[in-house]
Specification:
Elements (H helix, E strand, L loop, with lengths): L7 H47 L3 H11 L2 H7 L8 H34 L4 H4 L5 H29 L4 H28 L3 H24 L11 H7 L9 H22 L24 H29 L1 H10 L1 H9 L8 H10 L2 H20 L4 H4 L5 H34 L5 H9 L2 H17 L4 H22 L3 H4 L17 H24 L5
Helix pairs in contact: 1-4, 1-6, 1-20, 2-13, 3-8, 4-6, 4-7, 4-8, 6-7, 6-10, 7-8, 7-9, 7-10, 9-10, 11-17, 14-18, 15-17, 15-19, 15-20, 17-18, 17-19, 17-22, 19-20, 19-22
């Protein structure tokens, strides 16, 4: 018999299966993709509006460029490009932050819907069908890349709707989209290399951290500016939107995305299902540490993620401390620049206390997100049936949840303490006047916002367990965005007051706002109580 093409009835089911896998991936990431897309579009448009209220004449533009040219500012926010143009200002003010937001979402979504689903056993029946694992991984990755392209398109729409030139907006939005696609491919690749979702996510986050560090060093130290070519964030900056609109860096980033995505699909074909290329030794002795109680088990589950988060936060705030003298000396000698910095959203940078207070406020975002992620992990373990034997013991759900809450709260304290110690160490290295007590008090000042995130996460665990991460991170990430947008867009004052960040005192320069601390702590306690009560009475997710 001669080979003939497969009849339609044989190829049709395979095509239908492929479409079903694509629809599954869309369903899994749809809500998060829409949120990220809205944030990217909104922040891009708001930054353009902020430029028009900040830069009113050529002198202001020149002063702002001189401010942004300071090495400390370049390291933190990137190389200033075309700040006289509203589009160039928007790229400098929000470009790196939006790229990081999109990258973090893409890599975590990639590990969640690939390695996470496979590790939980939900791919067993799927992979027993017509589609090989290579196709399944490739389709999931294609959906994530499409979501990144959608976010880039939203940035373009936000910028052009605000009235800036379309050419620079196209280059900037393409860079954002490629950053998201690159880290989606990174997440998919680590999901093939590592046998667990936690390890895959940790490795992908490490790649992101190294990429960001290369960009910061390359921007801050001219002699090693070539390091930016090794980072996707650096490549998007080298495209120079609104100042040359270079295409070559974006083509290099596109090639890296293509190679990495192809490698992830090929790697999936060459491994066993529910396994990775790197796995824990099967013959090692059992590790019994911290298994004697529910509380100790919660600490054991917390330890590795806390080490990774602490390393990233500590490195960033060590850099903040090292740059303190460079920043404050420049602004002290140029008071007009300090005024412009305040209008651009960086108030109080002229003193070491004001500088550290402004940047300590940002600490609430990773600290609150950390608390939310820990509770989201508990929800995921419940759904993945990894806690079945634990719940079968003579233990109440309240005891289990209370242990996790206590561990997460302890993690927040450790995280903020490390940030304070790192900042103090950096300032001491350069001779800046910042005491250890002042540094720690500034870092601990954001704990009430982290408590709000913890309370919101517990509330979501009881009432909406599928949305624990989003709801839990809302007081920190959402509150920060609300304050920035309200301040930049001239919204009524009461809108900005809805953000918990509006009630943070500028510690260590100012005393703690104790009424606000008490109110936020009380709100967090009520939300936690409501979540615990509901968690006790709802069915377990199986």
């Amino acid at each position: 018999m001669t080979a003939v093409d497969a009849p339609p009835e044989q190829t049709g089911p395979g095509q239908a299966a492929g479409r079903a896998v694509t629809a599954l991936a869309l369903r899994q990431i749809g809500r998060g993709a829409l949120v990220v897309t809205a944030v990217v579009a909104g922040m891009s448009a708001v930054a353009v509006a902020a430029h028009r209220s900040t830069v009113k004449d050529p002198a202001d533009a020149a002063a702002l460029e001189a401010l942004a040219g300071n090495p400390a500012i370049r390291t933190l926010f990137g190389e200033p490009i075309a700040l006289h143009d509203a589009g160039g200002f928007a790229v400098w003010r929000t470009g790196t932050a939006l790229a990081v937001v999109l990258a973090v979402w893409a890599l975590l979504a990639a590990t969640r819907i690939t390695r996470g689903e496979e590790d939980a056993g939900r791919w067993d029946v799927l992979l027993a069908g017509r589609l090989p694992v290579t196709t399944v991984v490739a389709r999931h990755l294609a959906v994530l890349i499409a979501a990144s392209l959608l976010a880039g398109t939203a940035a373009f729409a936000g910028l052009t709707a605000a009235g800036v030139a379309a050419g620079g907006a196209a280059v900037h939005s393409a860079g954002l989209a490629l950053c998201g696609a690159f880290f989606a491919a990174v997440g998919a690749m680590t999901a093939q290399v590592f046998a667990t979702r936690a390890a895959a996510s940790g490795a992908a986050v490490a790649v992101l951290g190294i990429s960001m560090l290369l960009r910061m060093v390359g921007d801050g130290v001219a002699a090693v500016g070539w390091l930016r070519w090794l980072s996707p964030f650096g490549l998007t900056a080298l495209a120079r939107p609104y100042d040359g609109n270079r295409i070559w860096p974006l083509l290099a980033l596109f090639a890296a995305c293509l190679v990495l995505a192809t490698a992830a699909a090929v790697a999936a074909e060459r491994r066993d299902i529910r396994d990775g290329y790197l796995r824990a030794p099967s013959g090692r002795a059992p590790r019994m540490r911290l298994l004697g109680s529910v509380q100790a088990f919660a600490v054991r589950r917390l330890a590795r993620p806390l080490v990774a988060w602490s390393a990233g936060v500590g490195a960033y705030y060590l850099l903040i401390g090292v740059l303190a003298v460079s920043m404050t000396d420049f602004l002290t000698g140029n008071p007009h620049f300090a005024d412009l910095a305040a209008q651009a959203g960086f108030a109080g940078l002229g003193t070491v206390q004001g500088y550290t207070a402004a940047l300590f406020a940002l600490l609430a975002v990773p600290a609150g997100t950390f608390a939310a992620v820990r509770l989201a992990t508990l929800a995921a373990d419940e759904t993945g049936r990894r806690l079945t034997l634990l719940f079968a013991q003579p233990l109440t759900r309240t005891r289990v949840l209370t242990a996790e809450i206590t561990a997460a709260l302890g993690g927040v304290i450790v995280l903020t303490t490390i940030a304070g110690l790192a900042t103090w160490s950096g300032t001491q290295a350069v001779g800046a006047e910042l005491g250890l007590t002042a540094a720690l008090s500034g870092a601990w000042n954001v704990v009430p916002i982290a408590l709000l995130c913890l309370g919101a996460g517990v509330f979501a665990l009881g009432w909406a367990p599928r949305a624990v991460a989003i709801v839990g991170a809302l007081p920190a990430a959402g509150g920060f965005l609300l304050k920035v947008i309200a301040d930049s867009s001239g919204w009524p004052a009461w809108v900005g007051q809805l953000s918990p960040f509006a009630h943070l005192a500028a510690v260590p320069g100012d005393p703690v706002n104790w009424p606000a601390v008490i109110l936020m702590t009380a709100a967090a306690t009520l939300a936690t109580a409501a979540g615990i009560i509901r968690y006790r009475h709802r069915d377990l997710r199986t």
